[in-house]
Structure formats: structure tokens, C-alpha cells
Amino acid sequence: MIRVLVIDDDEIAREAMCAVLVRAGFCVFELATPIGATSVIKRDGITVVALDINMPTINGDKLAKLLRENAQLSNLGIILVSGCDVEQLSALGRKVGADGIVSKARLHVELAPAIERAVAARAAKGGAPSSSAPPLSSSGPPSSSWRPR
Questions:
Q1: For residues 49 and 23, what is the distance between their CA atoms, to the nearest angstrom?
Q2: Burial of 22 by CB count in 10 Å (0-12 exposed, 13-18 middle, 19+ buried)?
Q3: Are 53 and 11 in contact, with CB atoms under 8 Å apart?
Q4: Which one of 108, 134, 135, 137 has the fewest beta carbons within 10 angstroms of its own beta carbon?
Q5: What is the residue-averaged pLDDT of the chain?
Q6: In this structure, how many other beta carbons lie within 10 angstroms of the beta carbon of residue 88?
Q7: Cα gap 62→55, rounded to integer Å
Q8: pLDDT tens-digit series, residues 57-84
Q9: Phi, psi of 48 (to 5 degrees)
Q10: How far is CA 137 from CA 62, 72, 126, in A?
Q11: Backbone region of residue 97 per phi and psi (left: phi > 0; alpha: psi in -120 to 50; beta: other values)
Q12: More confident residue, 143 or 107
């Protein structure tokens, strides 16, 4: 199952992304801040990250670049999400090695297909992502929220 981590500081946008992805049948996790994202990605066996570009602690494009440079995360799909100009978003995506971009105005029709394309692209580049994800921890509160499908 495809496990998606949504990172967006805007609660309404994050909720919208999560709702779209849950309806599409993905296992969805969410963070309101990029802090601790790498730990969540590793711990929860995340397949793809959907990142907002404009966040107060670290911009999504900078986090995407850091994730892409992490050899342990070479199969991680990355989708940049923003309300900014699509051409600007495309340029950022190419610069940081994102697998796709999605305009917030088109989340409802473009996000799920972008996630699927990212998974396919990563599988073609380096083998299929692991289908066996670690179990959800029941000891203590998780640092990310999980939404069952």
C-alpha cells in the first residue's frame, strides 16, 4: 500500500490534501511542520511525501532537496504542492529533483495521480519501494497523525 506523508502548516490545506488521498485509497500520515519529517518517513515506511512550499520553519523546496540528498531515502517520491504560479512551481520541482508538482487549486484532480506517478517513477529508477511498512506504534503518541482509509 502506498503510504503518503502530507506536510503543510495550513490546517485547511492539509485537511484537503488528506481527504483527497484517503478517498483515493492511500494510507495517509500528516505533519503540520517539517520538523521530524525524516524520522516519520523512516519509522512509518512512507512511500511519497506531499510538501507545501511555503512553511515558516523550512520551505518545502529546501526540505525536498535535503530529502533527495539523503541516500537512505533514494526511493522516496516527492511532490511539491503550492498555490504559487505553476511555472515557478515547475522550476522549483526540477531544481530539487521532485517527482511532481501540484497546484493547490487543482488538488482534487491532480494530487492522487501525481502520487501514483511518483511511485512509478521511483520504482523505475531504483526498484520498487518496500511494500512492507513498519507497524503503527501503539506505545505513546505518534509524532504524526495517521488516517486510515
A1: 17
A2: middle
A3: no
A4: 135
A5: 86
A6: 12
A7: 10
A8: 899 999 999 999 999 998 999 999 999 8
A9: -140, 145
A10: 29, 21, 28
A11: left
A12: 107
Q: Which amino acid is at 133?
A: A
Cell 529508477 sits on residue: 125
Q: Report the alpha-carbon distance of residue 58 to residue 126 in Å, rounded.
A: 28
Please state, in angstroms and rounded to a whole number, the distance separating the CA atoms of residues 7 and 88: 20
Write out the three cell numbers for 12. 485547511
Grid coordinates of 74: 533514494
Determine the residue type at 124. Answer: A
User: Do the beta carbons of residue 51 and residue 64 sit within 8 Å?
Assistant: yes
| Amino acid residing at 2 | I
Please give, one letter per residue, the 3-state secondary structure of the chain.
CCEEEEECCCHHHHHHHHHHHHHCCCEEEEECCCCCHHHHHHHCCCCEEEEECCCCCCCHHHHHHHHHHCHHHCCCEEEEEECCCHHHHHHHHHHHCCCEEEEHHHHHHHHHHHHHHHHHHHHHHHCCCCCCCCCCCCCCCCCCEEECC
Give me the count of residues in the chain.
Answer: 149
pTM for the predicted model, two decimal places: 0.84
